[in-house]
TrEMBL record:
It comes from Pocillopora meandrina. The lineage of its organism: Eukaryota, Metazoa, Cnidaria, Anthozoa, Hexacorallia. Residues 164-325 form the JmjC domain. This is JmjC domain-containing protein. InterPro entries: Cupin_8, JmjC_dom.
Amino acid sequence: MKAEAYNIMLFSSQISFVTFTLIEFLCMVNLILCHEHPSHHSDTHSCGNQYGEDCNVLKNDLTEEEMFLRGHMKPFGSHRPPDFAVEELPYMISPVDFYMNYVIKHKPVVFKGAVKYWPAYTKWTDQYLNTTYGQERFHMETKDDDKWNVPPDMELSEFLSQYNHSNRYLVDEVLPDMRKDVILPLCLRCEEMSSFFFVSYFWMSTGGTSSSIHIDTDENLLCVIHGHKSVLMVSPVYSTHLYSDESRVLGVSDINPQAVDLEKFPNVVKVRYHRANVEEGDIVYIPQIWWHQVISRPERQQAVALWWKSKPVFKKPGREALPVESLDKERYSFGNVLAQYELWVQNVSDITPRIKCKDQQVFMSDYQFESDKMNVPQTQGDGGYLEEELGLKISDLNKPENKDLNPCDFDYKNQKSPCHFESCRNQEDEENTKCIRYILDYCLHYDDRGCVDQLPQLMNKLGSSQYKEIQQMQSDF
């Protein structure tokens, strides 16, 4: 894997020059530009490349013994300060900016105050929701995020009458009629993203909630309408340190985030993380496949989550799969699947083509401009709303002419690829264990974009019994 180049961000409050350490110099030689970040401790320094072990050594870093004492039976993240405070922007950015600088790089970001312009920000009082949607039924969950004892669905009016003194919170898809109160963030208004919108969720509680440490296989914009959330995010490269393969449900860590047992899960001390401070009206981008925990303050909470599908680009044109150099990868490891996905994303981020956002393109010919010439028509020199009246429409994306290629993400020309394996042809069978086993074996032998894209989707949320069955079954590869 080639090293990624990162922008130099050097901070110093006392001196006007920077002395590079040997580690920083070596990082520069390897095209990895390191930088210091302010943190909770003035004697700690972190490098811009969170994936390179040589470049991820903190000056005067905590020992594992110190991190154990700090973190044992304490909330997740107590073992060390965050390596990075997530970047905060006091403005919304364009879709191209968002996609090229954050999405394809899996770089979290917070947009401050963007939700305060939504109608929902002022309209969604308890009284309004009760009057307008009181008879609608919503899915409920418990504040301790117990996935094994989920309460029954409830009418919104009943929930509103008791949620101030109950252990339940509401989480369900945003009703179609409620969507008129949600302004689609500007950063998503591009057909390369909007054409792949997946689902939207509405969250409501009195706060004091904490999610499990989990992943979502889709990109996520979490929009806080009311309340405050702290979001801890962990790169997938640390998946094995979160014991991803030992979980009862893949993609949901069995680690108790309220009291991390470092005797049972000692490798957690090796986990580095980002922390996002998401206040009322803010939006946070949570990259797909990233482990995250969402903590809500004990106060009235409302949020909308917008999910969309995303795939990294190919390393080579034509979907060509490259044979792997060795077979030393740990067999059938979900943690390694997630890490490989993230490393692929980072590896191709700087060769990803710029998105076009054609429906956002408006030309000068669509407008009238003032002229200083005599006897020519004049425009409204004091401004107008022509741009808002254009009525931009989303066009269909071009689809491959060869329909056989469309449903298969693997190297179609490789006769050993899952594209040609009979058990993988049934796209409707989501629990086809023979297909998953075949893909796992294929991916041990070929470096195929389909492997990093499909395995997280196929293995996520598998039960432990299914996982063992796949590992023990006879291979057809």
